[in-house]
Write a structure and sequence with these properties.
The protein is an alpha/beta fold. About 40% of the residues lie in helices and about 20% in strands. A hairpin with a 2-residue loop joins strand 3 and strand 4. Helix 1 packs parallel to helix 8 and helix 4 packs antiparallel against helix 5.
Amino acid sequence: MNLSLGIIGLPNVGKSTLFNALLRKQAALVANYPFATIEPNVGVVEVPDERLNGLVEVVRNDYGQKLGDREVPQKVIPSTVKFYDIAGLVKGAHKGEGLGNEFLGHIREVTALVHVIRDFEDDNIIRSGAVNPRDDMVTIDTELILADISILDRMLRGAKDDAKSKDVEAVLRVAVLEKIASMLNSGKPARELALDVMEEKAIRGVNLLSRKPILYVYNVSEGSVSIRQDQANQSNEYDRLSISAKIESELCSLPENEQTEYLRSLGMEEPGLNRLIKAGYKLLGLQDFLTAGPKEVRAWTIRSGAKAPEAAGAIHTDFERGFIGADIIAYTDLMKVRSLKRARELGSIRLEGKNYSMQDGDVVEFRFNV
């Protein structure tokens, strides 16, 4: 499953600084002027997952450090997230102001949005557009809504022509699009409209900007990041994070053995970027299952609640088509014995069928026949 997040926001809010920290290198131009980013910078980021290290130990316990002249395991492959650092948006983007047309076009390519909001004061950094976080949010949402309205008008005309045939799905499509149009015209993004399964199916392929899930990232000062995040945690606001892009940039420049101490000195348990990726998973309803063997230890991304055959299909379509069953053990249970062979001897590995709902951290070996 391809997870792609578009980093959006007004000019000079810290998008490119955050993007560079994610990639742990200077991939994007960081400059103190609007539109330093024109074409989107694209980077693939590994999802931090300590469970992979645990599985490496398990595989080596079962097979040794080497098989012949090859290391065990030969490869360790984490899940990945693709990030797009997209040009800054200004008021009037839906009419082509600034880099509006390019900006809106690039947003259509991503699964979800990470809206970076400047929430710190620095007279040395130019502030474009909004003067406070709330205005920033309104500006971005308004541009997405207005862009959607113009597209939806064309969609509705075509849908109404199709509905003249009285086809049930075509009629439902018109009804849902009209419901979305009403929401947009009231000034609210389409993501706030709850649709049932049939309604979702009726508008499959409709790629509206304001329907994309959105995660708000407040770029705060170094001194306030831990306090702000504690406040968000207590209020259960899973769709918003407080991160200091400056701290994250400094952190990734340090040797790995110094990063933990630096975080501890700031009162932080883990990098903000780890929290960002985890929040992205939660926002999109995703989870990982794991596979382990002498050739490969790997994490696979699936939607939460996926059945075992669907998970098998994430590895290969043949696995799903010929699915027989799945040998499964929870990662936490496996780490009690630290050996798949020993877990099997103890009867800790269970066989699950096609109706099993996968759990995050399941260690799996699929049985299939094509």
